[in-house]
Amino acid sequence: MLRLAILLLLALPTLAAPVVDRIAPSYGFRFGATNVVIHGSGFTSGRTIFCHQEPCPVQVSFGPYEAQERIVTPTEIHVTVAPLEVVPDGRNVDVRVTVNGQGETVIAHGFSFYDASEGRENYEQYLVPITGETIAGANGSQWRGELTFFNGSAHNAVLIGKFAPPGVLTPPIPDAETVAPRGTSKPILYGSGATAGAFLYVPKPLAGDVRKSLRIRDLSRNANSWGTEIPIVRIDEVGTTMTLIDIPTDPQYRATLRIYHWSAYPGVARVTIYAPDRAEPVSQFDVESHAPFPPQPEVDMPFYPSYSQVDLLTPAVRAAGPSIRVEVYNYGDNPRVSPPFPAIWAFVSVTNNETQQVTVMTP
Length: 363
What we know:
Blueprint: H1 2-11, E1 19-24, E2 27-29, E3 34-41, E4 49-50, E5 58-62, E6 65-66, E7 68-72, E8 76-81, E9 92-99, E10 103-114, E11 123-128, E12 134-136, E13 142-151, E14 157-161, E15 175-179, E16 184-185, E17 198-203, E18 210-218, E19 228-229, E20 233-234, E21 241-248, E22 253-261, E23 267-274, E24 283-289, E25 306-311, H2 315-318, E26 323-330, E27 344-352, E28 358-361
Parallel strand pairs: 2-10
Antiparallel strand pairs: 1-3, 3-8, 4-7, 5-6, 5-9, 7-8, 9-10, 11-17, 11-20, 12-13, 13-16, 13-18, 14-15, 18-19, 21-26, 22-25, 22-27, 23-24, 23-26, 27-28
C-alpha cells in the first residue's frame, strides 16, 4: 500500500517555476514610482488577476523592496516600484518573482536605481516665463498662463517646482507634480509676482520624454483665440546677450521687454535699442532685476528667477522708425554668486491694442 502511494505521488505533475524573459524598463528612479512590466510565463493558470480586487498569487521584490502588483496575466506582471528612502548599495538589485505553489525565479542584477531626487545635478532646469496666475491686462483683458505636460516615458515623471494651490505667496518650498506614463497633467505653477516666471526641474533621464507646453490666453476673449505659445527655456538657451529684432513701433501696438536672470539673486541688464538704418542707438538704459525672496544660499534648487520688465515704446523710440532691434546685455557679475552667472534670457511681448492679440518675439 505504501509503495502504491509513493508511485501515485511520483506520477502527479509538478508545477513549473515561473520563467522571466525580460523586465521593461530595467531601471527606475529613487524619487518617484516606476511602472514596470515583467515578461515571461507561468505567472497564472490562465486568467488575468487584478490584485487590487482579490488576493495576489504573485510576489515581486526589487532587492529588499516589495513591489505593488496591479495586474497579473499568464505572461506579464504589471508592478509599481515605489519611491525609496535610500538608493540600494550598488544601484543594481536582484528581481525576485514568487508564484504561490510553484516556487520562485531570481534575476540577478535585473533592475537598476538612479538617484533622481534632491540634488540639482540630477535634473534639467527649465524656465517657465509666464506662470499660472490670472493677470489683469489693458482694456478689460484677463491673462492666464496654461502649462501642460505630457509624459511619453514608461516611468512616473516627478517634476520639481513651486506647485501650490491658490493662496498667499510663500517662500520657495519644493513641491512635486507626478505625471503618469503616457499621461498628461495641467498643474498651476505659481510665479513670484504678477508676470514673473518660475523654474521647473525634470529628471535628466526623462527630460527628452516629458513634453512641455506653455500658452497664455486672454480669458475675456476665449472665443477669438486659443492663445499664444510661450517658449519654455532650457539652460543652454541662455547667455550673456540676447538680441530681439523687428519689434514694431506702430501706435497700434504696445511692447513689453521681459528679462530673466538665471539666478535668485538681483542682477542688472543693459538694454540698447537700435533703429534698422542707424548705427548709433536710439536709447540705452540699465534695468535692475529683482529677486522675489531674500536669497537662500542653502537652497540647492532655486524656484524663482530674478526678473524685470520695461515698456519699450516711448515716443522717442516710436519716432525712430517702423521697427527696432533690442539688445540685452548682462551688465556685470554678482560677487555673491559662485560661479558668477553671465546668464540671462529675454523676450518681447507685442500686443495689438485693438484685439489684444499677443505676438512673442524671442532671441
